[in-house]
Amino acid sequence: MTSVDAGGLTASRPGGLRRRAVNRLVTGLLALSVVVALLPLASVLYVTVVKGLVRFGGYFLQHSMRGVGPLDNTGGAYHAIVGTLEQVSIATLLAVPLGLLAAVYTVEYGRGWLATLIRFFTDVMTGVPSIVAGLFIYAFWVLALGQGFSGFGAALALTILMLPTVVRATEEMLKLVPDALREAGLALGVPRWRTILSIVLPTASAGIITGVMLAVARVAGETAPLLLTALNFDGINVNPFKGQQAALPTYIYSQAGAPQKVALDRAWAGALTLVLLILFLNLIARAIARRSRVHG
User: Fold this and answer.
1) Residues 158 and 173 in one domain
2) Is the pLDDT of residue 70 over 90?
3) Residues 86, 277: Cα–Cα separation, whole Å
4) Theoretical Cys-Cys bridge with 80: which of 251, 282, 286, 287, CB 3.0 to 4.6 Å?
5) How far, CA to CA in Å, does 95 sit from each of 135, 138, 158, 180, 229?
6) What is the pLDDT of residue 97?
């Protein structure tokens, strides 16, 4: 009997038919689950795009709310875009190096109490509510040190929220790098730090970049920490180290709380701007990751 005939005989038996039916049923349920999970996301994106396009445009992206009255049909989110870019950029510059160093130590060097302490605090920080990070920076930076409200204070709060995500993502990616690569570098007489820098990190770079972008996407939409550290501002403040500074989350919050329809339209346009900004940053990160994978 040939293998084809054997397969046909097996499928024709009651047990084989039952297995095929169960397989199709489970496959259909999984596909249905994916559709059900994607429906809320698609609905949110659809509503955001449709309502956001009412005000979204070149004027909205190039003007601030300086001098705009409650009933004026003008104003934009340029000042909030500048604030978000500055605050998220500073937070990324602070969180990524610290997160990488912590993850490299715990995976490549850490065997004692310090590595255990780092992992413990990383787990604790993962569950910290964003408002707690804002309250900590408010009490320490704004009140205790007397630095006042600023975009840099907001960036410090966002750094606290980014760190655990960066550390955890980097740890998992470093653990996926085969030990054979490390051993090959050490066997050639390459110092351990050089092996990590030239072999291990480039190998895990795609996953690390993805983890960093997840952290950026998380903090870019945080509102509570910004209300406690940077407040809000209707004008353009390009200096993150002095004075109140707006951001897209606080801009959306303030506009959505106003009773006028034009303000609500601005809030939807600000939400669409934030979504497009995060999408743009993710596309850049994927291009960098793809390029590093090709050259690696």
Assistant:
1) yes
2) no
3) 13
4) 251
5) 19, 19, 9, 30, 18
6) 94
